[in-house]
Amino acid sequence: MSLVLLGLLNSQAAAAGGAGAFDLIETQVLTTTATSVTFSSLDTVAADYKTLEIRAVARTERADYQDQLAVRLNGATSSYTNHGFGGNGGSISAFATTNTSHIFNSAQYDLPASLETANHFGFAVITLTDFASANKRPIVSAYSGKSQGTQIQDINIWSGFLTNTTNAITSVTLSSRFTSNSDFVAGCRFSLYGWKG
Amino acid sequence: MATPTFELIDSTTLTSASSSITFSGIASDWRDLHLVFKLKDSATRNAFLTFNGETTGTNYNTTRILSTGSSTSSSVYFEQAKIYTAYSITYLDNPGIFTATIFDYAQTNKDKICFIEQGLSYGTGANDGYMIRATGMWESTSAITSLTLTEGGGNNYPIGTTAELYGIAG
To answer: B5 and A16: CB-CB below 8 Å?
Structure first.
């Protein structure tokens, strides 16, 4: 099935050999809205790498000024624990959440939403350390931020992990933390990179 | 052959003191830019970031968090003429560094957003250092073709100051 038919422009880079220590594996650029974006078959497409990095530049259709990015590993919908902190220009707040349905930054927000200026996007850089290990809790660390015309601006550092397994990470799904009317908009970009280890 | 993912675009090392450093003629060949700036001086030195020669107006925003050995704070610089990248990059001849990642710099459907990391340790006291993380934005959909680091306080960067610009595929 063509990914273009799913509303994605998809490019793959490093699979053909000649790769370095830090390689682009795949980029997905949305050509239409999408509820989520998944990088799958990581045990195959990223088999040459020790650590993965995802770069997202995104916003959503949520009927608000802002939204929160959610990360799911291996399709799991429960048993995540999250920690982090963030600042919004006025204060810094820290958070810890347990037994959540995804990994996310609950201190602040990451992404502009539909009420915000159309060309404003947020960013997130998500690292999956030792993603193929089968003897560690699957863990991610991230930083994210956005800057908006309404002075709702954020910078965040956060992490999360699955508490009920030591399975290798074979897929990562990104979405809004909110469950309805919060699709990613066209133009959002998601790139997967691999680090040799 | 794989597409190079992380490439040095240009670098400069000052051979005479200068109040600014500019990278110009940046092609749209990559997805993100990564800037590394390093210097050492006896006094505090700042670095403000601007794009495409736009040094007036109100199109730049910065939000940052700062941690010292004993406190944290968050500040915002909204509708400014520059991005505030650093508190002070160097002090008391201790070398300092900051990096900035500029996402989707050539995409003309997005205003430009960047992530900034900076830190400095200049002594052995509990508060003799700090770290900063920040979000910066240039409210323009223009592709970035040049960027300038400016000291901004009427001072020069010393001889030996280095700046490196990398391109990241995506």
So the answer is: no
